Amino acid sequence: MLIELQNPAVLSRIVEIISELVNEVRIKVDESGLSITAMDPANVSLVGFKLPKKSFSRFEAGAETLGVNLDNLKQILKRCGSGSSLLMEKKENTLEIQIRDRIKRNFVLSLIDIEGNDIDFKSKTERMEFSSSVELNSIDFVDSIEDCSIVSDSCSFIIENEKFIIEAKGLNSARAEFSGDEARIKAENCRSKYSLEYLQKFTKGAKLCDKSLLEFANDHPLKLEFRNEFMELKFVLAPRVETED
């Protein structure tokens, strides 16, 4: 396996985001490109990332699975500058990483065995039913989540009278309301509550794309998708269901 990226900034940013959820992952490289699927240790969230083959300037790979420590990989990728290119080559039980800019810098990352079964994002999510779909500007979505985080540790996604509402209530409250003028809304009335701790981690991915796609239903998991022509990043987040004492 030998692959090269002329602009490794996106990969570096995604690895940083995923490392906030899990410590170790399997990176799969095959004829379609590079992908990562992982579930956080609390089984609350699922992440799926794809970097298609066309994103690479050089791509020589069959079907490889690379077990890596994300903190270690993250620190190496942070060494890439704005004009750097990144070359990764698997050799036996190591991943050789070369950063090319003014000079060539070489790193060797030991590959590790990851416990547990492989996770397939599509098979995990294909049976989920979402009654509501909302597409909105990423900057508006990020701002709304940040507003809610000021007043609470969770927020509700609400569809009401053909409007999409993001709302948090504690001692204080925050609310953002979107009509069909600000968002593409295909939905039925519903409400579901989610952890802001996780949403704040996810929305770091929203900053890489102009649009954010949200799918949810009444007290059901949330599916978030951030996509452009060069990458695809998806999350699933379990709802926070209120229980009576």
CATH evolutionary superfamily of the largest domain = DNA Polymerase III, subunit A, domain 2
Query: What quaternary form is this?
Result: single chain
Q: Number of helix segments?
A: 5
Overall body shape: elongated
The residue fraction in helices comes out at 10-25%
Instruction: Compute the average pLDDT.
Output: 94
Rg estimate, integer Å: 19 Å
Distance between the termini: 55 Å
Enumerate the strands of the largest sheet in spatial order, edge to edge or round the barrel.
6-2-3-4-18-17-16-10-14
Number of strands: 18
CATH fold description of the largest domain: DNA Polymerase III, Chain A, domain 2
> Number of folding domains?
2
Classification by helices and strands: alpha+beta
Give the helices and strands as they follow along the chain: EHEEEEEHEEEHEHEEEEEHEEE
Assigned CATH architecture of the largest domain: Roll
Q: Given this structure, which CATH class of the largest domain is correct?
A: Alpha Beta
Task: Give the uncertain stretches in residue-range form.
Answer: none
| Biggest sheet record | 9 strands, antiparallel
Strand content: over 45%
